[in-house]
Write a structure and sequence with these properties.
alpha+beta; three-stranded antiparallel β-sheet; 14 helices
Length: 352
């Protein structure tokens, strides 16, 4: 995020290890922050042309990945996901039922994609069982669902029909997972990699042994690993203003080592009432406030007072975000009372 890239959409998604997309617009906003001249239609076209695939993948959450990464990711995590889901005794009791329902799902989708509600009704299962079914039959979320204009990713198809037959082994998939994670988040610890991938250290071990890695020590003496030619910018490198969506992976626990989110602000980004992060903006590479869409405005709330120069830079990027989002103005809210000032309303109103 130091400089917007000209990479094609699928390659950009590979570079950052996939996009977490429980909320479909997050993918569009995450790419807008990282790519030069990105337009919303570019990601929708990539989904329609099947160069980008959306499905339930890492950490049992919805992700978008490139078509080339889809099967390696699936094969890498298949056994771990099934073992996790079956971990509860009550679920082991219905394993045969779920496998049978998965075969019926395959039959129901033989003629093409169908909405989730139709599949649940035809199968006679609840949402919990449906989640298990997806571990024994590979499903993708098919556009136009799961896009900017139709945000609920509730239209399912068979992965073999949408992507093509599986084309990777489990070990090939695990090795690619490691490379994708380190490209996006390295240097990192093995613990970070475990948290991101959902795989155990034992599962990762053989693939880690085959990859040539750079090794570092963190301030506490722990080992960090990275890819051999991965860039390491100087800590003094200036970073421009960037806006991040909810669910952006750089803010999740496995990415704490990136130091993008100051720990004193973490409680203001993540709430115990909701599992997702608030949309945020970065100043000089650090989370410095939140933003939201309200009616036809982008409303930005810094956590602390800003210098006039920083305010101008933030407002200019916010205006670009407003144009991308289809909003007509930007409102900047004064820092809240937790930063020592009152929150009385918009500080300024800038028309786009």
């Amino acid at each position: 995020m130091l400089e917007r890239s000209a990479l094609p959409v699928p390659k950009a998604i590979e570079r950052i290890g996939g996009l977490q997309t429980q909320y479909a617009p997050s993918a569009y906003l995450g790419l807008w922050s990282r790519l030069r001249s990105f337009e919303r239609a570019a990601l929708t076209r990539a989904l329609e042309r099947r160069s980008v695939i959306q499905g339930t993948l890492l950490r049992m959450t919805i992700h978008m990945v490139s078509a080339g990464d889809y099967w390696p990711f699936v094969e890498a995590i298949r056994r771990a996901r099934r073992a996790w889901w079956l971990g509860a005794t009550s679920r082991r009791a219905v394993e045969r039922e779920v496998i049978s329902a998965a075969e019926r799902t395959r039959t129901l989708l033989a003629d093409g994609p169908r909405p989730r509600r139709e599949l649940l009704q035809a199968l006679g299962v609840d949402g919990s069982t449906w989640n298990g079914i997806g571990l024994w039959v590979d499903l993708v979320r098919v556009p136009p669902s799961g896009t900017w204009d139709r945000r609920s990713a509730d239209l399912y198809g068979l992965a073999e029909d949408w992507v093509g037959p599986p084309a990777a082994t489990e070990q090939q998939g695990i090795e690619l997972l490691i490379r994708r994670y380190l490209a996006g988040f390295g240097p990192a610890s093995i613990k970070d990699l475990v948290s991101w991938s959902g795989l155990s250290p034992a599962s990762l071990g053989p693939a880690l042994g085959r990859i040539s890695l750079r090794r570092f020590r963190d301030p506490d003496g722990g080992e960090l690993v990275d890819l051999p030619r991965a860039p390491l910018p100087d800590p003094a490198t200036p970073a421009p203003v960037r806006f991040l969506p909810t669910w952006d992976a750089t803010l999740l626990v496995h990415a704490r080592r990136t130091q993008i989110l100051p720990e004193r602000f973490r409680p203001r980004i993540f709430s115990t009432k909701t599992p997702h992060s608030a949309p945020t903006f970065l100043l000089d590479g650090q989370v410095a406030g939140t933003w939201r869409v309200e009616a036809d405005a982008i409303r930005i709330t810094p956590f602390e007072r800003l210098s006039p120069g920083t305010e101008r830079e933030l407002d200019e990027e916010a205006e670009r975000l407003a144009a991308f989002h289809g909003a007509t103005r930007v409102d900047r809210i004064p820092p809240s009372t937790r930063s020592g000032t009152s929150r009385t309303g918009p500080e300024r109103n800038r028309s786009t």
